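Dear support,

I submitted the protein below through the web form. The confirmation email said the job was done, but the results page showed an empty box. After a refresh the structure appeared. I'm attaching both so you can tell me whether what I see now is the final result or a partial one.
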Amino acid sequence: MITITKLVIPPHIEEPLTEYVNNILQHPSRYIIQPSQTNDTFNMDVNDPRHPGLDDEFVKNWDLNNIYWGGFNLQTNKCDNLATIAYPPMSISIPLIDHLEETLQKTIIRPTGNFLYPTGGYMGWHTNGNMPGVRVYLAYSPVDHGSYFKYVDRSTNTVITDWDDKGWTVRAFEVSQYPYDFFWHCVGAPNAPRISFGYWFKK
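What the results page shows now:
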């Protein structure tokens, strides 16, 4: 059974972190480390269509039992429209990681994803099955329902769309290395830009 836990960031961390991401939204070129490798350009004003083969249509046209039991795996996504950005400065990152470790009672392995999605951006379906453990993703959206985290709920055989709230949405979930227990998920930002910071913890 898939369990998504929502976490809360304390104000003394949330306030400087929010200021940091607002600076990114205002001046993205100052913070972009690497544009998407699957797109030639990165433009906040371009609403690129999502790849039809690896987002919603991927699950609709592929029997879910084949995903669960057929050994099919995408450890990392094969399509995206996003940019890699700089992590928050140490003055923010250290208190944040300390807070997450204390909350989860787990030890961090390393950061796992620092992304800016333009409006219309996305990350295709994948499992992260090559890096099992607990993942935490902090997602920031300037508007309510501007972006989402989507995943396959194996217990109900359905695809769940979990929309981001305005401001911060923090999700923690476990990733498995076993094909029968892969956690298929993807990200979309159809209505607003999205910024996310990910962290990988020991199980």
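Response: this is the final, complete result; the empty box was a page-load delay. The first helix runs from residue 11 to 26.
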